[in-house]
Design a protein that fits this description.
CATH superfamily: Ribosomal protein L30/L7
Subunit structure: Part of the 50S ribosomal subunit.
Keywords: Ribonucleoprotein, Ribosomal protein
Protein name: Large ribosomal subunit protein uL30
Shape: globular
Radius of gyration: 11 Å
CATH class: Alpha Beta
Helix content: 25-40%
Number of strands: 3
Order of helices and strands: EHEHE
Strand content: 25-35%
Family: Belongs to the universal ribosomal protein uL30 family.
Length: 62
């Protein structure tokens, strides 16, 4: 079984006063509090979600 590549994200922006879709994207990524980190499998779907909220998240490691 091959190892899947992972990506580590950190939330750096608040979802307050953001569109509902951006808040929902953060929740979909598993981020809901400032400075929370989450390790996810690097898929095109996850990359698309990151591209939707680049001002709210930071990629820490790939």
């Amino acid at each position: 079984m091959a190892k899947d590549k992972t990506i580590t994200l950190q939330q750096i922006g608040s979802p307050i006063r953001r569109e509902k879709s951006q808040r929902a994207t953060l929740i979909g990524l598993g981020l809901n509090k400032m400075n929370k980190q989450r390790q996810l499998i690097d898929t095109p779907e996850v990359r698309g979600m990151i591209n939707k909220v680049p001002h709210l998240v930071r990629i820490i490691g790939e």
